[in-house]
């Protein structure tokens, strides 16, 4: 294809003033590209047509420099283009060009038109009602939340700086959670200071709640804390080291049972009696907590996105709590034993504690592996690697966001009670496509977009600082965010000095490298180095922003439940279908290996391990397995291999269950639902279909909102998780030693 070259009249002093007020260098190539795109719609491209477009572009550029000296407004450029086309009798070309501009103006207006979007909700348009995999749009309070979200998005777009709103609408960036923030100055995800709240007491509504005297009461209080926190923010609610948090309250149960035993039980049996009774209390408390979380419904119309981190407790009480969490998850919910969707379980593996067979808690690691083969959770975090990557140990906030190490004024490392202030994600594949193979151009556009993202993130910070403690008493006054503020305090006391994070996300490293090196680039060291350079530059910029503003700007591997589709759809409209990039109809999530390829788990982990070094603010790896319920040792071996390589690893394994024929495995997606491949059953009442969507699990079969879209969801599950790491299939897999060459490792 011929490419228009600049005429001599072009210099570098001209600037274009965009609608949002930004000043950018004048790039005549964009005029040629716009004419070329319009021409493709009405004329077959030929050498003659290309020459004609070049001459038209030359005339437009000459007119611009004849009439303007230093800068020109974007609408003035468009007016000149239209007049030149009309003067040249290029009426069809002018019509397409004018219609495109009118359509863009119309779409911009619709984005802030509440009535227009409400109509889409009433008509159950998928882009509105299918917000996430765990939100049922047929439920009244979900409908109310979706309606409020439409209002929030419309107002939020008007509140944003003009250039940020424009970049979001075009798809250069994505300003996450517009339905909540900036309309309301809400925070995102957090690690709740449950330990401090249980220890010191707190207030909910009109009730002043004292420190619990048993593990049952402590567990019940945790569920109420989670419900209230989830209703006061818009992200995931995580409880860090819950086994260690609850252990002192289990010890209170033990003391009570020992007191009873002293009165009624023979001396030599008192210890056994008290332990047995306490173990039963622990199991029942963990069972109740799991049921309560899965039956909670917050003000935003969904079960709270809850994460429990555990696995580091060493005493008998903490060990029993760990086992009870896993045993309850394995047993499942109800008489049928359905897989619990929440809380997300994150089990910590630590060398010397539970990694190896000689470690004191190794038996619990074995139980965790069994649980993951049957329920997909727990995911695992590697203690030493998390400390290396983030500066201290902690569970993730939500599904993958990680706080960085931070010390208070006393030099104490603080994790619990900290939070994230929001996410903005950069569309990296678009930059690659716009640069047309020119890396210098790529970096120029990259830094321009990073500047816009910086402004968006700074605006998030400034907006959330406008909240008052009275806006969310559970967070600011009653201890969920650690330090308790008075009503006259500034909420910024809990954000400043890098106590809070704000996240710069990204998507589509695979597609970026594909644009420059082709779709099979993973084994090309130069290509991989380029993708690492991108994250390295993002991290460098985030460090500079942190120094400038004293909030922790972190690089975040975005969990793009719908953004993988949105960015790709917008770029397909802009650039057309491009092999291995837009033709897939999705972009690859964060740094993941191309989902269409089939590496072993070891190849996949070795490939991905280099990225979280530069994206420690949020990351997760996945591997996909066949049915592993008869072979948990296979999964454990991958965990062991991952320990010194990656910090956070999730499991994808088929766990769908048919209660008619007792089939367990992977159901077949159809247009009407997920179907048992053994007996054809698709009745939601007698099947349990669980899929991982990004960091969380979801039950698409049970959600009326997704009926008719099950094939789409099945494919999206794959590309959202972005990672395969396949093992050999078969039910009689046996693990063998992992040699230095990482041979296939699983054999029949």
Automatic annotation (TrEMBL):
Domain Glycine radical span(s) in chain numbering: 597-722
Keywords, sorted A to Z: ATP-binding, Nucleotide-binding, Organic radical, Oxidoreductase
InterPro entries: ATP-cone_dom, Form_AcTrfase_GR_CS, Gly_radical, NrdD
A biological-process GO annotation: DNA replication
Top enzyme category: oxidoreductase
Domain (ATP-cone) ranges: 14-108
EC number in record: 1.17.4.2
Any Gene Ontology CC annotation: anaerobic ribonucleoside-triphosphate reductase complex
Chain coiled-coil ranges: none
Entry-linked PANTHER family: ANAEROBIC RIBONUCLEOSIDE-TRIPHOSPHATE REDUCTASE (PTHR21075)
Family annotation (NCBIfam families): NrdD, PRK09263.1
Name of the protein in its database record: Anaerobic ribonucleoside-triphosphate reductase
Organism encoding this protein: Pseudolactococcus laudensis
